[in-house]
TrEMBL record:
Domain Peptidase S49: 120-265
GO BP, sorted A to Z: proteolysis
Enzyme Commission (EC) number: 3.4.21.-
A Pfam family hit: Peptidase_S49
Sequence similarity: Belongs to the peptidase S49 family.
Gene3D superfamilies xref list: 2-enoyl-CoA Hydratase, Chain A, domain 1, 6.20.330.10
Swiss-Prot/TrEMBL keywords: Hydrolase, Protease, Serine protease, Signal
CDD domains: S49_Sppa_N_C
GO molecular function, one term: serine-type peptidase activity
Name this polypeptide is given: Protease-4
PROSITE patterns, alphabetized: PROKAR_LIPOPROTEIN
């Protein structure tokens, strides 16, 4: 059977979309993530603005590779939003919509630093709003905010650091395969998946985890000033409900996004009718506050797409991440 050309498949998809009522203007087979960010007004009409930036998913500086297009990393996208906001003197407040289980320790700290730097350079108040999950690195990046608000159903906390690496030596033993590694020093292949860790190596890795975690805990102390008893509970690494987090002074309020916007306008001394804006790379029909996409996805259900990045680590390394499935 002759293979069907890509052009023919594309034509059939466009025809099928028209048959089911899709307007040609909505055709967007391959979203262009290189398009510039443009402001879109979600509500309000006054010249004062409250900017909403979504921070959703795994915190990483690695671009997400797709079948036909690549998507910018979360770090790149959030920093692009912050940089664009710096040039707008009408922005009176920034609202971060956080829904993330965390990510790499380095990238979590990068976003923390960039958000804190934006706050210091612009004097624009920042309100962090936690949605479903704002755990580990997701909590870490909320710390520079002037106020942290959690949805009543939010899961947060998981203040801690993990080192993740695969171990396949037992599998290799079962199938009779050996990996021979020649090293220049005793610990050059520390964490190798091809052999168990020695006691000394475990101690080295633990010391590194402890050092990175101490930085996380220091950030919590600096921004939240918990009591000694609360800090002991917080630094245990467990997750908390919104109510539990408020009792530990990890967050300031429990509420909904409209509550956060109202507070942001007050903090930024903005007009009550201030425009609530977001930055998009493409227009979205019926756009609203809960849209966390900057680019419209393909409108064709038959287009083959790569699966979204797994929320589990993709490579060995140190993470501020809550991964209960691992």
């Amino acid at each position: 059977m002759k293979s069907i050309s890509f052009a023919l498949i594309t034509s059939l998809l466009i025809l099928s979309s028209l048959i089911i009522g899709c307007a040609p203007a909505q055709v967007n087979l391959f979203p262009r993530h290189t398009d510039p960010l443009r402001e879109q007004v979600l509500e309000g009409h006054h010249s004062d603005k409250v900017l909403v930036i979504p921070v959703q998913g795994f915190i990483s500086s690695t671009p997400q590779e797709g079948l036909f297009t690549d998507k910018p990393s979360m770090v790149q996208e959030v920093v692009a939003h912050l940089n664009k906001a710096r040039g707008d003197s009408n922005i009176r407040a920034l609202v971060l919509l956080i829904d993330s289980p965390g990510g790499t320790s380095v990238d979590s700290d990068i976003l923390y630093h960039e958000i804190r730097r934006f706050r210091q350079q612009t004097n624009v108040p920042v309100v962090a709003v936690m949605l479903g999950v704002a755990a580990s690195g997701g909590y870490y990046i909320s710390l520079p905010a002037d106020v942290i608000i959690a949805h009543p159903g939010t899961i947060t906390g998981s203040v801690g650091t993990i080192f993740v690496r695969p171990k396949i030596h037992e599998l290799l033993d079962k199938i009779g395969v050996e990996a021979k590694v020649t090293v220049s020093g005793n610990h050059k292949d520390i964490g190798s998946p091809f052999r168990p860790d020695s006691g000394e190596e475990e101690a080295i890795l633990q010391s590194m985890v402890d050092e990175l975690n101490s930085q996380f805990v220091r950030r919590v102390i600096r921004h939240r000033e918990p009591s000694e008893e609360a800090l002991e509970t917080i630094s245990s690494g467990r997750v908390f409900t919104a109510r539990q987090a408020k009792e530990l002074a990890m967050i300031d309020e429990i509420g909904y996004l409209p509550d956060a916007l109202k507070l942001a306008k007050l903090m930024g001394e903005a007009n009550p009718a201030a425009r609530v804006v977001a930055y998009r790379r493409s227009l979205h029909s019926n756009d609203n506050l809960y849209n966390t996409m900057t680019n419209r996805s393909s409108s064709f259900p038959l287009v083959v797409k790569t699966l979204p990045r797994n929320l589990a680590p993709q490579s060995p390394g140190f993470y501020h991440l809550w991964i209960p499935s691992v």
